[in-house]
Amino acid sequence: MTEPKSFMESYQGYVSSGQALGQQINKVASFLSSLSVILINLTTRTVEVFFRHNFGERYLNTLTVLLGLAAVNLFMMPWVLVLVYSGDQDLGTIGMVFFAGSVLFQAAFVTASIIHIIINRARASSGKRWHSMSDGESWLTSMIKAKEARTADRWVRQIVEPLVCMAAGPLLVLIFPPLAIYLFLTGVLLAFKAAITHARGRAEFLDLVDKQIESQHWAEMLEGKPPRETEGFVVRGMHARNAGERRTLEDIFSGLDPDTASIINSSQQGPQRELKPALVGEMDGDRRALPPSG
Asked: For residue 259, what are the domain limits?
């Protein structure tokens, strides 16, 4: 006869089960998130080839073109099933009207992609380096001065390109309904993708800035100085209340990281130095590659 479990054993069992369930949920959520990103990229790539040039080798190649075609045809599949099972109209005539636009669009996508790939290979053969995951440069922003191009590029990607796609929907809806709906939804995805990419890139940049501020103002923060003297860097409750506590913290930091110790000690000797690029990479999880800007 087995003895009943104690309260702590039961509690630990519940905790373990909850942690295991949480890990499974996180895995499923991560998978769905990755799948969504892949589908969005494949779908938007089918119209990006008309708006942009100078793509990276890994962003636009034979495989991504084939997957883009698969995305278009996957969207068209429900329309095919509706036509097949409707049975009350001439399938041949309807099929020509509904899907001729799709065939023309896919032919244009493949043609534009082949031209881009040929140009990219010629660029590589000439020895010019280019980021392999570059999602292209807008034709509009390439005609703007370099100083204003980055700002204009954001609004072109978030507003102009999506609006062009969404405007094409109403124009084609009476002739090629599936293609019209596809272009409208792709315009929405373009705006969403551009906004998310910009937010992620901005977050990465702010992480680097925050790490530099933290490295430069550890000493002032530990001394309890207000945010206006530490560029806003404060860890609530983490400050030395007396000289003994401050010496203890300095010893801890000097034992963990010589660079941090020198930053702390330099507050009493002169102006703060700029953070080393190597230290930025180390403190930011060694992230050396930022995602393409939106």
From this structure: 218-271
pTM to 2 decimal places: 0.69
What is the count of structural domains for the chain? Answer: 2
Q: Is 99 exposed, middle or buried (0-12, 13-18, 19+ CB in 10 A)?
A: middle
Domain boundary, last residue among 160, 194, 228:
194
User: Which is nearest to 79 in space by CA: 156, 179, 163?
Assistant: 179
pLDDT tens digit string along 145-199? 766 777 788 889 999 999 999 998 888 887 788 888 899 999 999 999 999 988 9
37-74 burial: b if 16+ Cβ within 10 Å, else e: eeebbbbbbbbbbebbbbbbbebbbeebbebbbebbee
Chain segment 13-29, per-residue pLDDT in tens: 666 666 777 777 877 77
Q: Is the pLDDT score of 98 beyond 70?
A: no
**Phi, psi dihedral angles at 131 (to 5 degrees):** -60, 125
Burial grade of 98 (CB within 10 A; 0-12, 13-18, 19 or more): buried
Q: Please say which residue of 130, 162, 194 terminates a domain.
A: 194
Question: Are 213 and 223 within 8 A, CB to CB?
Answer: no
Q: With respect to residue 292, please indicate whether it lies within any of the assigned structural domains.
A: no
- Helix (H) or strand (E) holding 132, with range, is none
In sequence order, the β-bridge partners of residue 137 are 53
